[in-house]
Structure prediction request, 104 residues.
Amino acid sequence: MAAGYRVFVVNPRQTFRFRERFSPSGAKSDAGNAHALADMVRTDSHQLRPVAGDSDLAGAVKLVARVHQSLIWDRQRLVARLRAQLRDFYPGALAAFGEELVAG
Prediction:
C-alpha cells in the first residue's frame, strides 16, 4: 500500500472456491494460487473489499515509534561501547558507577 498498490482482503474460503474453477481436483500449488488470486482480482475486484489505508495520525505514530526504537538501540550501543572503553582504560569507574552507568 505504501508503494501505491491497491490491496484487497481475500477470505481463504473465497480463494478455495475460486481455485476450484482451475483445479477441480483440489490440488494446491503456489503458482496455481497466484494465478487464481490474480484472476480473482482481475475479474471480481468489485466484490472484494480493499484494505483501508493508514490515517495521517497512524502514519505519524509509526514514525515516532520507529524513531523511538532507533534511539533506544543507539543508546544501548553507546553504553556498550562506553563500558568496553572503561573496562579497558579505567576499570575502577565500572566498579564505582555500577548499574548507574545507564541511569536516566
Remarks:
- Strands lie at 8-9, 49-50.
- The CA atoms of residues 57 and 63 lie 10 Å apart.
